[in-house]
Amino acid sequence: MASGAVGAGAFRARLADPAARRAAINQGVIYVVLIVGAAASILPFLYTVSVSLMNLTEATGGRALPATPQWSNYVEAWQDAQFSLYFMNSVKITLISVGGALVFCALAAYAFAQMEFPGKTFLFTLLLSTLMLPEAITWVPNFITVSWLGRISPVPWLNNWPSLTIPFMASAFGIFLLRQFFQQIPRELWDSAQIDGSGHLRYLVRVVLPLSSAAVMTLVLFGFVGAWNALAWPILVTTTPDWRPISYGLLSFLDEAGALLHLQMAGAIITMLPIVVLYFFTQRHFIEGIATTGLKG
Amino acid sequence: MLLAYSFLAPAFIIIGLFGLFPLAFAAYESTLRGLNKIVGSYDGLGNYVKAVDNLIYIVTFWIAVGLIYFAVSTIARAVQEHRQEQTNAMRWALPATLTAAGTALFARFIFVLLPEMLLIPSKLRGQNNTQEAFRSLVVETWWLPKVQVALWIAVVLLAGGVVWGLFVNRTVARDSREPIYFVPFFSAGISLVSAAALIWLTWTEINAAYAGALEEGVGLELWSQIVTISAGFLLLLLAWRLWESAGLRSSNTGMAMRLVGAVALMAGAWVLIAELPRVVSAGDEDWWNGLMATVFYVLGTVPIQLGLALILAALLFQKIRGQTLFRVLYFLPYVAPFVGTAAVFRIIFSNRPTAPLNSLLDLFGAEPLLWLSEPAGIIQMITGGRIDLGPILSGPSLALVAIMIYGIWTYVGFDTVIFLAGLGAIPNELYEVADIDGAGGWAQFRHVTLPLLSPTIYFLSLYAVIGTFKAFNHIFVLRQAAALGTTDTASIVIFQAFKRDTRYGYASALAILLLLIIMVITLVNNRIASRRVFYG
């Protein structure tokens, strides 16, 4: 990989010069370390793919590769684990919560970034302080709150979409992320928008949001991953599979499938595939979003 | 201005209801007995005593002391500035105190409202349990005189304070760019009120504990424990101050004397704090084991994870072909849904003799291991298991080590990406200057890269440590019954107390303790960081 383009003659000439030789060895060592690291990151995934294509004896027998790929494992896992239900549930939950988060976080972030009002710093500090709260502290109170809201509101909350989506429709993280981007938009744009007779809301939708599409994209991606990964809270608020998301679905399938390793791994692949595909297509947004927010958070 | 508030309102309603209100709710819930969803009677610090025994009295006492110290020092600073710079800080005192009192009364309102609300399900018992009946009871409870009185007192004081504050703000803005002293007075007021509440609670609780002990005719070692352990902490504090002041001394002998003194004080402190384990052993074993597992997890993952990531990032930052590809691959374990990856690791670390790791062991002629199902500590296993080393010395269980390996595997890529961003922020000229000065690769890394990267290192280590205390998902997937709970970290213990045992009050008390631990870690980290971290 490293010296693929270097011809044999040039290679020998470089070996004759001690400084160049040391540089070449250094380069070689760097590549070896990097490749070992990369192998460690992806080997478990390759192993998963391999096991998911084996039959039962191969999977439990400790083989490395299947003799003939058993594509039917995926169909079997899909049906056994009711993945069509869980998949749809997760998609619905994701759409509702990310949609809500986008609206509410964008509004709040816009107020923090572009408007002046008394108590701004205080409210912002209050908001950021919720980042420190461990999720565990919200379990008991939120479970009680949610079951209460279900008894007084027209829609039930437990075992239903409201409990799984509404608490995640606004987050300090999302507001913070969007505010960072909204702040960079020059004030002159607002002045000219005002001259054109545009109000705050229209300015936000027409100008600010399109200009911060990178941040919006990051927020959507994070919301998607978060909803796909949610586990503790869905376990607490669902008792029936009707609204159970895919993580919980896979976890119960792992316990049910017991010794059927090949089906377990097919289920794991089915669960991971959407996120991994999404990641490969949008990896720049993903990585840069994490790098910028991580450093400033 | 109104528009701004209406933009904020939806987000703040959701965050307030599901992010801030739970804090007060958990605090209230943690003082209730309650089992199996039945609302329990008031139990004071009972749940905390169950968890950490008498230590809780010491903790609440010291929190109260800390709050008072904080309040006094903020007020003192404001007063000092007021004298020196002729600013008019004092006119903020009254509105801020009024607002603080209003906020405290609002908290009291929640504590008046919650018990009445939580009683509703039991009122419904025997009647037909329809949604209308429930709803009308909720409305009825809301209009109870004492609830309304508590609410309106709080609202009036709060509104009065805020309006007064705004009024003062308006007059200030005219004359000068004088700083606004609202926040210091406000936080000082809040601290004083909560300190008073904590002291009152601790005092009544201790009295109740003594009354109970007298009735049953057993002695209570409460005071001796409180005094010795508190004295230990005080000595530790003193030693720390001395240690700090040693750095300022110019003469070597003075510095050495101070350092010796600090060490001596520290030794004395630890002797006194040695009382702690005896108190601790009377607490909840699951909870202490959970905390210990968490500490093992932090010590075993954070340094390795950060070290590996730093190496990878430093190498990747050289002019390397395929940099993007490497970055994408390293990041993959962090992005992939963790239930999926944990499922894979469940098989890799399976106890079957033909599982990947066990076949690898077989290749070297070693016996297969139980991995995720092994409750024995690794140091215990290495020493052959003949001597019982006790829970701390025998180290984390092999099952926990397997989970740590999974944790490292997931987070190295994340850390690498953030390190890369940090490396990218270091100006290139510094390296050019270092080159001219003849600094080699290692010297450049040591004297340019590391100091300039220290904010990133600090951020990542804090993030990783707090993340471990919050960690739930992957441990929940990887834990096996056969590991006998040795892999259960703090969050898992809380979850089990809530979901499996339905001990609502107890789970809330544990969660509040977890929050306290996280706050202390953050504070200590900030203290250290303000000195060690170099913000270029």
Explain what the structure shows.
- The complex is a heterodimer of chains A (297) and B (536).
- Chain A has 297 residues and is mainly α.
- Chain A has helices at residues 8-16, 18-52, 56-60, 72-80, 83-114, 120-129, 135-152, 161-165, 172-183, 187-195, 200-211, 213-229, 232-237, 246-257, 261-296.
- Chain B has 536 residues and is mainly alpha-helical.
- Chain B has 3 domains: 54-208, no CATH class; 221-278; 283-532, MetI-like (MetI-like fold, Orthogonal Bundle), CATH 1.10.3720.
- Chain B contains 23 helices and no strands.
- The longest helix of chain B is centred in the middle third of the chain and has 35 residues, at 182-216.
- Chain B is globular.
- The two termini of chain B are 38 Å apart.
- The chains are: A mainly alpha (297), B mainly alpha (536).
- At the A-B interface, helix 2, helix 5, helix 6, helix 7 and helix 12 of A face helix 1, helix 6, helix 12, helix 13 and helix 14 of B.
Jot down its keywords.
heterodimer; A: 297 residues; mainly alpha; MetI-like fold; 15 helices; flat; disordered N terminus; B: 536 residues; 3 domains
Write the layout of secondary structure elements.
The complex is a heterodimer of chains A (297) and B (536).
Chain A: H1 8-16, H2 18-52, H3 56-60, H4 72-80, H5 83-114, H6 120-129, H7 135-152, H8 161-165, H9 172-183, H10 187-195, H11 200-211, H12 213-229, H13 232-237, H14 246-257, H15 261-296
Chain B: H1 2-29, H2 46-52, H3 55-84, H4 93-118, H5 120-123, H6 131-142, H7 145-175, H8 182-216, H9 222-246, H10 252-273, H11 276-280, H12 285-316, H13 323-335, H14 338-348, H15 356-363, H16 378-382, H17 390-393, H18 398-424, H19 428-436, H20 441-470, H21 473-478, H22 490-499, H23 504-532
Helix pairs in contact in B: 1-23, 2-23, 3-8, 3-9, 4-7, 4-8, 9-10, 12-18, 12-20, 12-22, 13-18, 18-20, 20-23, 22-23
